Amino acid sequence: MLGSARKLSTYSQAVRCAVLLAVVLLGAAGASSAAGDKLEILPLDQVKPGMKGVAYTIFAGNQIEKFDLEVIGVMPNLLGPKQAIILVELKGPKVEHTGVVAGMSGSPVYIEGKLVGALSLRFGIFTKEPLAGVTPIENVLEVQSAAEPQKAQRSDGSQALETSKQDDGAQGTQIQAPVQYAVTAEFLPRVGEGAGAYLAPIETPLVFSGFHSAAVSRFAEQLAGYGMVATQGGIAAPQSDDAQVKQGDMVSMVLTQGDLSIQASCTVSAVVGDRVFACGHPLFSFGSVELPMARGRVLTTLSSALASTKIVNAGGTIGTITQDRLTAVMGRLGPAPRMVPMELTIATPAQQKQFRFELIENPKLTPLLVAIAAFNGLVANTAYGEGTTLRLTGGIEISGHSRVNLENMFAPTDLFIPDGSFVAGTVQNVFTRIFSNPYEAAKIERITLRVESIPERRWASIENAWCEKSEVQPGETVSVKVLLRPYRGAPLIQEVPITIPPQAARGTILRILVSDSEQLNRMTRLFSSAPQGRLAGLEQLITLLNRERRNNRLYVTLLQPTPTLLVEDKELPNAPLSQINVLDQRRNPVGSILLRESTAGEWSVPLNQVISGLASVNIAVK
Question: Residue 578 has what pLDDT?
């Protein structure tokens, strides 16, 4: 290992020079380690098995404590090319009792009074010894050379964080598989583990404040793949020394703040000027990010045979997390980034509650956070109960664009799923389509949601439909009768008057489609989620979202047997063959869909219940 380490590439030497320069700047700034000495680095090629060292972390309160450790060996290329891990055994009564603790990641490790790295990995569960992996400090500080978050110009001239572009039909957040690093056979005897042993990032406490346990457990799985351990907690009042962080202190990455709070916390590994390095491993592996950074205040450490964890409250905001990389999370002391304001109102016949909070602006996380907040607002309400119908209204205000309107009803089901989950899923889906659109970064100005609980199951199915006439004249108005069967109620007949178009050709057969909203929305959703972006931009996507039918209305659509072209966000009924040929010859530059029928008219009746089902009637134009 020592021989290969001496054969460093020119690039590695340059990185080391940059790291040493950062240390010099840190020393010039008068910074000190947790032990009180000026920061010095022990390079990885000088780390040998058997070396004794210490690490610093907080177990409770604001007191930074040290514990002993011993180097077992260096595992080269464990994380990737030239990304080694130092394998250590933690020693001392406290760590032997708690083991490796969630929230301990980033704890600075010193050997011979010099900074070696940051505690970052632990062995898989059911290990008997407190074994851990340390990310070398060279790799931790290397994060500062990564590109800063890039700003993209919006249509309104403002700036937006540039993110990777995804398909605008993405359907929610995918569950991430936990990261595991296999331990090579040569190290297994040294650590007393058998085949299949692995190292994984030390879990990060994800503290929820103002959340019902049902809401936390409902969404914990989607965050567990990122190494998050969901736990209940609170927030700490800002203090004058919040920004005076040093090695061994805690910092929190804020996802939500206000009446509802979510934050993840790690230990500080190093402070270089205004840059704070923490965790020793990624938070979400997002790369360049903009997340509020706050001071973390440790309440206590909970010991567990399965997984010990720190309970950390977020204190005052002290800056911005700008990097979320393989070997560390880095933030800058100073102002915090902009967050998205959200207002959530939960109304029941007995009471009304309102929550105000702010969310980070991130295409992957914001939709999930909105869903968690909506679900929590329901189940955390004392008047909430299963078996009620939920009515969702609200909107998303986007800078430089039209408002996205939200409206739907959700009848309870007999499935073993909380009724509020359907509200949360719908909200998450809409936000995902907005945030991950492939056209431009959407600047969300404000989010307002209102969920009203109606204490009964308001649902009806379409059982049959018929028309009072089988033959009609062009321009004639006829009545379509629909047989609806409410949940555990007597059937009822709903009449919907429709008008035959004056230009309807005599001798043609028209089809009357009686349906719920989902039947009509399927084509719209398929169209807007087609690959390669069939739409011209975000505004047209918003138009399609606002055009989607609502499930508390009964729809009657008159269809005629002539083709319809869907181009961008426009419907072109009765498209002539010449127009179809022209678009085909141009190879559909903006994309189009050809339907075999055209809509000659659409009518709807608002009903204070969820409608489901489908019926079809044919009539002749004479």
Answer: 54
Tokens of 493: 């007949």
465: amino acid identity, one letter = A
Measuring CA to CA, which residue among 77, 75, 12, 67 is closest to residue 49? Answer: 75
β-partners of residue 182 are 198
CB 269 within 8 A of CB 28: no
Q: Which helix (H) or strand (E) holds 55?
A: strand 52-58
Average pLDDT over residues 415-422: 82
Q: What is the mean pLDDT of the chain?
A: 81
pLDDT digits (tens, 9 = 90+) for 295-346: 999 988 887 766 788 888 889 999 999 999 999 999 999 999 999 999 999 8
Provide the pairing of β-strand 108-111 with 52-58: antiparallel
What is the predicted pLDDT for the residue at 244?
Answer: 93
Beta bridge partners of 615: 514
Q: Which amino acid is at 471?
A: E
Strand residues in 167-260 grouped as ranges (E): 181-182, 198-201, 204-209, 228-232, 250-258
Q: Which residues pair with 394 in a beta bridge?
A: 406, 449
The number of beta carbons lying within 10 Å of the beta carbon of residue 509 is: 11
Contact 229, 206 (CB under 8 A): yes
Distance CA 589, CA 436 (A): 22
Q: Whole-angstrom Cα distance, residue 588 to residue 580?
A: 10
Q: Which two tokens stand for residue 431?
A: 């936000």
pTM recorded for the entire structure: 0.78
Which tens digits make up the pLDDT trace of 35-54? Answer: 334 568 999 999 999 999 99
Q: For residue 7, what is the enclosing H or E element?
A: none
E strand spans, 99-215: 108-111, 114-123, 131-136, 151-153, 159-161, 181-182, 198-201, 204-209
Which helix (H) or strand (E) segment holds residue 223: the answer is helix 213-224
pLDDT in tens, 342-366: 999 988 887 888 999 999 998 888 9
- Residue 596 three-state SS: coil
611 close to 517: Cβ distance less than 8 angstroms = yes
Give the tokens for residue 525. Answer: 């959703």
Sorted by sequence, the CB contacts under 8 Å of residue 379 that are 6+ apart come out as 212, 214, 215, 418, 420
Domain ranges across the chain: 1-337, 340-454, 459-621
CATH number of 340-454: 3.10.20
Q: What is the pLDDT of residue 95?
A: 87
What is the Cα–Cα distance from 87 to 587, expressed in whole angstroms?
Answer: 59
Assess contact for 262 and 252: CB atoms under 8 A.
Answer: no
Instruction: Say what the alpha-carbon torsion angle 470, 475, 476, 481 is, to the nearest 10 degrees.
Output: 70
Determine contact, residues 606/458, Cβ cutoff 8 Å. no
The answer to whether the CB of 462 falls within 8 A of the CB of 515 is yes
Residue 587 dihedral angles phi and psi, to the nearest 5°: 60, 35
Instruction: Tell me how far apart the terminal alpha carbons of the chain are, to the nearest angstrom.
Output: 91
DSSP lists the bridge partners of residue 572 as: 565
Is residue 388 within 8 Å of 454, Cβ to Cβ? yes
